[in-house]
Amino acid sequence: MKENTSEVEYLAYLEEFITENRKSKFLKVLEKRTNHFTVAVEDVFQLHNTSAVMRSCEVFGIQNLHVIEEKFGKSIDKEIAMGAQKWVDVNRYDSNISCVKTLKEKGYQIIATTPHENDCLLDDFDITKPSAIFFGTERDGLSEEVMNEADGFMKIPMAGFTESLNISVSAAIIIQNIMSRLHKSDLDWHLSEEEMITLRLAWTKNSIKDIKRIEKRYKEINNLV
């Protein structure tokens, strides 16, 4: 597509190839989506845990997931993700420092999920600031680099003998908590109109099996070839 081609016009054309129910579902889901919070996972050794975190992001409304792949693999377990990779934007990084730097430049505070002397209990976490929630490896937790760059620390209160949870479980608990509170707040946490259009376009394309042929036809009709 050429840059001057209207996304709105293109979206209207593509939406002719999906059902009204699918279009309505997109709009309903987008009403609950946000970039106020984002999630980052650092070198998660067990791939299915990254996929499960992605699924929690999708289910509870966080649009962007950041995956640091400094040490381990670069694929997503689609069976665990259960299709979430079609609806969540996955941003990949070769180093933890580049991820932290990128997110700080976008205005996020870096929140490390780890027991720490200056940590904050989950229910007391301040949801008003745009925050990037970082989760570490199952074996070693977050790296020293991320810990040093963190603006704050968060932990889940526990009442048993076990001192830690699996990353996918921790992420689900934290994401559900902060998103539930965000949805009930008066904060301006919704996606912008431009962000919604871009996502509607991407999701619509993901929903059309013969998208390459249809895109080709659109370009021919509009002399974009």
Automatic annotation (TrEMBL):
Under Gene Ontology molecular function, one entry of this record is: methyltransferase activity
EC category name: transferase
State its Enzyme Commission number(s): 2.1.1.34
BP-aspect Gene Ontology terms: methylation
Instruction: Report keywords, A-Z.
Output: Methyltransferase, RNA-binding, S-adenosyl-L-methionine, Transferase, tRNA processing, tRNA-binding
Listed under catalytic activity are:
guanosine(18) in tRNA + S-adenosyl-L-methionine = 2'-O-methylguanosine(18) in tRNA + S-adenosyl-L-homocysteine + H(+)
Transferase is among the record's keywords: yes
Question: What's this protein's family per the entry?
Answer: Belongs to the class IV-like SAM-binding methyltransferase superfamily. RNA methyltransferase TrmH family.
Q: Which HAMAP family match?
A: tRNA_methyltr_TrmH (MF_02060)
Q: Which PANTHER family match?
A: RRNA METHYLASE-LIKE (PTHR43453), TRNA_RRNA METHYLTRANSFERASE SPOU TYPE DOMAIN-CONTAINING PROTEIN (PTHR43453:SF1)
Q: What does this protein do?
A: Catalyzes the 2'-O methylation of guanosine at position 18 in tRNA.
Q: What is this protein called?
A: tRNA (guanosine(18)-2'-O)-methyltransferase
